[in-house]
Design goal:
By secondary structure, the chain is an alpha/beta fold. 43% of the residues lie in helices and 17% in strands. The strands form two sheets. A five-stranded mixed sheet has the order 3-2-1-4-7, sandwiched between helices. A two-stranded antiparallel ribbon has the order 5-6.
Length: 241
């Protein structure tokens, strides 16, 4: 079974979701590793262990002057860039994986639905199950979506029609167990990791002048082995688009 930590990043009309898949039997080791990374940030850059690292505010410096105000934009960008090296290394050490969605249709719920379908298919192929842990904010909408998709989940065929001759087929998600759990990112290092991942993908796909200036539009490109590329074989990084 995998614990999936999901967060999103948005720059309308673009919506990005990133899911960090942590094997249940490696959770303690993966968490200890992230605590070591946060300890390094504390000892090297004076970032408290309790500080919430939210990519948008972290990179801009907004809302964190009391805790992180001593860090320059250049240092923040370097830390952000290093984060992706840390995540990539988690595949080798703990079997951690990542699934990502990037939609430009200004429909956040559609992007989340596409992620759920891909998670379900991935768990089927791995003969495993997923338990979703999401950032707080859309508890009602996401819970209703998961419950609906367990019963009614009509998928169009990528070949035009299914073998039945119909354009859509009901494929309930049966590999996602229980309702999603919602947890504040303040209290979850893993959700904070997913937030950085999502923002890195957003800025790779849609770079801003500031991202180009400090080069963090290239940060996501460090990810390779941790990505579940089977999610979209037409994309070099497997991003669902």
């Amino acid at each position: 079974m995998y614990f999936l930590y999901i967060d999103d990043s948005t720059d309308r009309p673009t919506n990005v979701f990133s899911a960090l898949l942590v094997p249940h039997d490696k959770w303690n080791e993966a968490f200890a590793y992230i605590k070591l990374w946060r300890g390094h940030l504390r000892d090297t850059h004076r970032i408290p262990l309790y500080a919430e690292l939210h990519a948008t505010e972290f990179l801009s410096g907004r809302g964190s002057r009391g805790v992180l105000g001593h860090l320059s934009r250049r240092i923040r960008s370097q830390i952000f860039h290093k984060h992706f090296e840390v995540v990539e290394h988690m595949k080798t050490k703990f079997g951690v994986r990542m699934i990502n969605v990037c939609n430009d249709d200004d429909d956040q719920f559609r992007a989340f639905e596409r992620m759920l379908n891909r998670v379900n298919r991935t768990m089927q192929s791995w003969n495993s199950y997923a338990y979703l842990i999401c950032d707080e904010g859309k508890e009602l909408q996401y819970t209703r979506m998961v419950r609906r998709m367990r019963v009614h989940n009509y998928i169009p065929s990528d070949r035009g029609v299914w073998d039945s001759g119909l354009a859509t087929k009901n494929i309930p998600i049966d590999r996602i167990i229980e309702d999603p759990r919602f947890k504040s990112s303040v209290g979850s290092y893993f959700i904070q990791l997913s937030d950085f991942n999502a923002h890195g993908l957003l800025r790779m796909h849609k770079p801003t002048p500031r991202a180009r200036q400090f080069r963090y539009h290239r940060s996501f490109n460090q990810l390779e082995n941790v990505l579940v590329k089977e999610c979209n074989r037409r994309d070099p990084k497997g991003i669902i688009r």
